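call fold(seq) -> C-alpha cells
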Amino acid sequence: MYWYIILGTIENQFPDRELREFKVFLQALDRDVPELLCLGHLFPKENYNINKLFDIYGETSADYYVKKYVYAEQSLETMPEVKYDVVIYFEGDEAKRAYNPMIRERRNNSSGRYKVSDRYGLWLCKDFVPIQRINEWITSFGTGSNSYGLLHGFINCQKLKLTANRGTIANTNAQIISELKKAVQDIINEINIDLYKHDVMTLRKWKEEAKTKKFEEAAFNKRRELITRKQYFVIGDRTFLVPRNEAELYGVFVSLYTLYPDEFEFEPLDYDESAGIDLLARNKTGNRIADCEFWYVELKYQFGATEFNHSFSNIRYIVCWELSSKVKDGSVLKTSVEDETRILHIIPGIDGEIKRCYLDSDNAAIKIKVICLKDYITQKWGISLLDQ
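ret:
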C-alpha cells in the first residue's frame, strides 16, 4: 500500500509540504486488532556519519548508512515550464530491513514479501504517488550491477501523462521523458560523486573484502579437513595426495612424469583445460618442436564414470587415476560429440606386469592407450597408498 496508492505519497519529503491528517486502519484476516497506517511513504532516519558507523559496525557499517538527497522545484533545461521534484535516499541493506519488515529474508519465500530488487531503485511519480519504476535509467552508479538496490528514490512530475489505469507513463510527450531522463542521470552522477567523496563506496568495498576473507577462511578449513582424510603416497622425500578430480590428477601426472619420464611413451607439451582436450603431446624425439606431429592426451579422474565428451579423433592416450566400476573388458564407450564407438579392452598383466588397457574399433586406425596411474604407483612401482 505504501508503494502504489496515495497512502505512499512522497510529498512530505520536500520543503514546505505538509500532509493532511489521514490514517488507515488495516486489519488482516489473521490479526485480532487492526494496524495503523499513516499517510506518507516510509523512509529511514538519516545516518551518514561514517566514523561513528565504523566504530559501531566495523566493515559492515555501509549496511547501516543512510543519506537523503532532495532536489525540489527543478525545471527541465530546454523546457523550463516542466517542473519536477526529486528525493533519493541512499540506504544500506540493514537500514532498509530495520523499517521495512516486508523485505524477504534470504532463503525465505513467505507469501507477500519481496526482494530488494523487486521494489527499490528509482520511481516516476505523478501527484507524488509512485507510478513506474525506471531502474534502466541508472547507469554507472556504485560498484556493481545491483547497486541500484541501494537507491530508494522518486521523481515527481505533473506533466507526465498516464495510461487509463495509471500503470505507466506511456502517454507522455517523448521529449519530456528524454529530458527528464537526462536530468535524473545528472543527479545520480552527483550523488555518486558525493558518496565516493565521503568514502561510502570504500566502506562497501571493505564489506566485500571482509566477506571474501570469511569465504576464503571457510574454504581453507574445508580443504584442510578434506586433505587430512585423503590417502597419500611417498616417493623418496616427496609426499603426494591421492587425486580426487582432473585438476589434481594433472598435478600428480606431471610430478610422476618428471620423476619417471622413461615410463611414458610420449612427451606432454601444452596443457589447457579451458577448451578442448587437456594435453597436447608428441612422440619423444630430439627434433624441433615445430617439426613434430602433435596429438591429444585426455585426462579423466575415473575413466568411464561419465559419458566421453570429446571426439576420439587425434587422441592417442587417456590418462586416468583408475577405471570406473561402470566399465569392464568389452565395455562399449560412445562419444557424445560424434556417432562413433570404441570398445575397451583390458588385458591382464603377466609375470608381475600391470594390466594393459586400450580403446579400439574395427575401423580405427590407431588404438587409444589408457594409462591408469594408480596401477603404475601401486603395482608397477610397488608404492603403497597410505591412510592418514
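Residues 200-229 form the longest helix (30 residues).
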